[in-house]
Amino acid sequence: MPVASVFRAAPLRASAHRPLLPEICVLAVTAMLIALGVVGPVPALAVVALAGAAASTLAGVRLSRLTFDTGSPAGGPPAGRVARRRAARPRRAAALLHAAVVTAGLTAAVLPLASAGYRPAAAAAGLAGTTALLGGGLFSLHRSRPSIRGRLRRLLDQAAPGVCLILTAWLLLPYAGVPAPLRLTVAVLLGLLAVDALAALTGPGRDSGAARCRAGAGLTLLALVLLAALPAGPAAGRAALLAVPPLVVGVLLVAVGVPQVAQAAPIRQTALVWPRAVLPAVAVVLAVVHQLQLGLLPDRTAVLLALAVIPPLVVRELFGAAIPTVSEEPTDTAPAPAPAEPGGSAGRVALLGALAARPEPVCGALLVIDLHLTELPGRLVRDDVAAEAVRRARAVAADEDEVFDLAGSGLAVVSRSGPVLAYALGARLLTALSRPYEVSGAVLRSRPSVGLAELGRGRPEDLFRQADLARRRAAQLGRDRVEWYDAYLEEQLVRRLDLERELPGAVARGELDLVYQPVLGLADRAPVGTEALLRWRNPVLGTVFPAELLPVAEDLDIVGELGVWVLDRACRQLADWTMGGRRLWMAVNVTTRELTSPDFVPRTAAVLEAYGVGPDQLVIEVAEPKVAAELPTVVARLAGLRSIGIRTALDDFRAEHASLAQLRRLPIDLLKVGPEVATAGSDPHRPLLDVVVTVAERLGLEVVAEELESAHQVDGAHRAGCRYGQGFELARPATAERVEAYFEEFPSTSR
């Protein structure tokens, strides 16, 4: 297979954070070293050591990152313990495979240093250690095992090519002074490893991470067997160069495969037949030609191996038709369906077949729907819901449209309508599928998501992937909606998956940071406080702001962990400024979920006591649009904070009628309004901000005008009666050191 296709990463992730430039550089350097070894300036064992060290170092760096990554796998936003449990499997495998590639690299590196008599022993020791580690890593990667019929099919498919490769190894291995049993044993090992790597790279699911890891393991062990089989003396010569390509490609394939397992990328399920049939046969022919050129005739073992190719071919032809073709590899996207789920993959196969058989020119759309039942029913009830959902979908679809049950994961519709009508069909499906399901004496509710993709000239698998990406995006945006696929949407989803993978563990890795934006008195422009703003500085994703960060944290159920860190860091900084003679307040934003947790008030009090900060110096801010859903609990928590002297603020106040009505119920001290309030209202001489300030004064609240980005907005807020303000026009967010330097311009800074 071409090198570019061997190292093609998962479609969703490769462009985002796994560039192949380092791998390409290693391959280029390896090719140059092999050329130098063939010509003669560089000793062959030095080429083995340098190429093996370079490849294993790069592979080790790739795998070590995943080993210590606590992120969740792709494919959706699992929460809390579920995310950690799903992430544990590829991390364990990555740790073992990391040790394996390092062991392989060290084995190659020590060969030039060992004396000639000890080189085979050193290579054999490295082979044993690498084999054990690779075996453990591959076992950790696999989620399911093929059935007995699948194993028999695989054995028959690989028997003839395997015998051909064993024969090739027998003919090419050095034989002078080597016992025939040892030579045959090495030939069998080489042939089995080669055919296993070939099967992984060409079989069904060859794009899966597990297949690539298996192929890489086979090539790596193949190289080490070659090194262990070399003669002990200088006769090894350039024969050692034969081990360089499988060693380099093998460890790099392992490093590419493990992250793909963690990413749950879609895979290809079609096999490449011709490489298995052609490559072993060509290898045998070339080996025989090489023997004849040396003036050697095939020995009895070579003849017996050649005859051994025939029985597997006969058995394959006689019984192969009776054995159904199965995928050799478990997919990386989901566990293999249980045998009791008839059609758990049949619906998808039928859908892909219908897409492949669609007429040209193509017109229409593919709709993929996820039902997302709010309850967790049993399998039989789930089947009844699926049948009812298919019936409803057929009732709203056109006669020429096709509906497919995707066996528990939802359903799909192939529509012959254009984009506008297809979107309308998606809206009708949402309405129909959202109605309660009365099945088996239970009433179940659904929150469906619909993904749409236009039918084009692409492969059916690609069309399904596009529609499913749109469905995922609809689910991320809150469900009960229809989303179209486009390239930008895929970029967004890739970004989202990256965030979900990287965010867990950001606290432990020290990637979180706080910046502080001063709050000024509008009368004298002197600082009276600051607002702590969270920043996530990730080496892969760059700086991530709360607007993008917090929704992901909520889906992963780690908002509380982030909130604890922010409160602790902000209070510690406030304590430092207070000890320096600054009497300021520190505003900290909290989500409604954090605020309504039962231990929020005592935990906050404990942090203040630990740092010796006065309660009146801390301001807890909560966003106004989020409080309505849990208003009674929010009121209780805010009252609890005020009872111990902590001030409270209502952020992002919208000044709507409902907002003004609930303002009387909230026990707050500060009201924060944005510039849109200052410019709203039909009377330019009395903007809406005047009304808000008047209401706030009656309730005993101070108004803070935020996001002030022009002198006009600052003057307007001051004239309207706002006492405090913050925004880029007044002071930009900055690190603690820069804010402290800014405070030095105001020696009399106090509360």
Per DSSP, the total helix count is 28
E-strand count: 16
Low-confidence stretches: 1-18, 70-87, 264-270, 320-343
Shape designation? globular
Helical fraction: 40-55%
The portion of residues forming beta strands comes to: 5-15%
Biggest sheet architecture = 8 strands, mixed, barrel
Oligomeric status: single chain
Strand order, main sheet: write it out: 8-9-11-12-13-14-15-16
Question: Which structural class do you get from the secondary structure elements?
Answer: alpha/beta
Average residue pLDDT: 78
The whole-angstrom Rg is 33 Å
Cα(first) to Cα(last) distance is 71 Å
Short description:
The chain is of the alpha/beta class. Helix 7 runs parallel beside helix 11 (273-293).
Describe the SSE topology.
Blueprint: H1 3-6, H2 14-17, H3 21-39, H4 44-67, H5 80-110, H6 119-141, H7 148-172, H8 180-202, H9 209-229, H10 244-263, H11 273-293, H12 300-307, H13 310-319, H14 346-356, E1 365-370, H15 379-396, E2 402-405, E3 411-415, H16 419-434, E4 437-439, E5 442-444, E6 449-454, H17 460-476, E7 482-484, H18 487-502, E8 512-521, E9 527-538, E10 542-544, H19 546-556, H20 559-579, E11 585-589, H21 592-595, H22 600-611, E12 618-623, H23 631-643, E13 647-653, H24 657-663, E14 670-673, H25 675-679, H26 688-698, E15 702-705, H27 711-720, E16 724-725, H28 736-743
Parallel strand pairs: 6-7, 9-11, 11-12, 12-13, 13-14, 14-15, 15-16
Antiparallel strand pairs: 1-3, 1-6, 2-3, 4-5, 8-9, 8-16, 9-10
